[in-house]
What does this fold into?
Amino acid sequence: MKALITGGAGFLGSHLAEALIARGDTVYVLDNLSTGSIENIEHLKSDRRFHYAIDSVTNEPVAAELIDRVDVVFHLAAAVGVRLIVESPVNTIETNVHGTEMVLKLANKKKKKVLVASTSEVYGKSEDVPFHEEADLVMGPTSKGRWSYACSKAIDEFLALAYHKEKHLPVVIARLFNTVGPRQTGRYGMVVPNFVKQALLGHPITVYGDGEQSRCFTYVTDVVGALVKPADHEGAVGQVFNIGNDREEVTIRALAQRVKERTKSASEVVTIPYDKAYESGFEDMPRRVPDLGKIRALVGYEPGVHLDEILDRVIAYFTSDKARV
Ligand code: UDP
It folds into this structure.
């Protein structure tokens, strides 16, 4: 198979590229390096089945040429990270909406399959956990910038499903639940790399809000496996799937303590109000737990890496090269 990965120099995209190359596929990466990095794909450059272009998905001639060459597009290019979204809302909305519009329009010309990476953020403030794909999405008001990310991704989903319904474009939508692992940077606010770095440096571990909000963290290679299988499966076309880890829901306060213990850090765990951490009036998602029934039934997906192991692998990644901390 020949695959294009938009955002392929990002954290998740680079792991996906690695997995596809390992199984013998030819991989093209299109990435503008806005949040991705060349270092993430450095080790793949020497493989003759690996190709990359540093450009935006909205550069039509470049995107068209690459989409023409492949059988499937993994559309991962997006603005990611709550910090980035709060700080650059215009860029978030434009990147997420225009990029997906472009990919779907071009893929539709020759009916190339598109897997759109969406996010569990679309469930918004819903407390109806575990979140099922058919559940209502509960967004906050438009005055609160955080929800622009969820809404822009929801529009991506609507558009992809509309292309499927109206133009018979084969699309698959994957809603990802807090993916973590090596190569993820804390720069855009993600909690696990932030806590691990803080603990290793002996800095305060910063829990935002009261720390009672909870998440389920998924190891990146579990996510990669779960992206590849539906992309290969005819039964997935036109469907939305949750991809996550339902084995353990952890509060952010407990996560901070776990990171402190596993790094044997002397760091103190401190709480920071949301308005200081992000912006005045910031709203968080209280809980985020996936219902994985649909993807389990389709491809027998099972998350394999548990939270303690996930944390140990991220800690090993940062400690193996001091420059990363
Ligand atoms: N968070 C935190 N300290 C940090 C970074 C994040 O307490 O240094 C919290 C954040 O407010 C949220 C959770 O950790 O409740 C997960 O944040 P992340 O940005 O990783 O992902 P989200 O689930 O919000 O998309």
The chain has a mean pLDDT of 96.
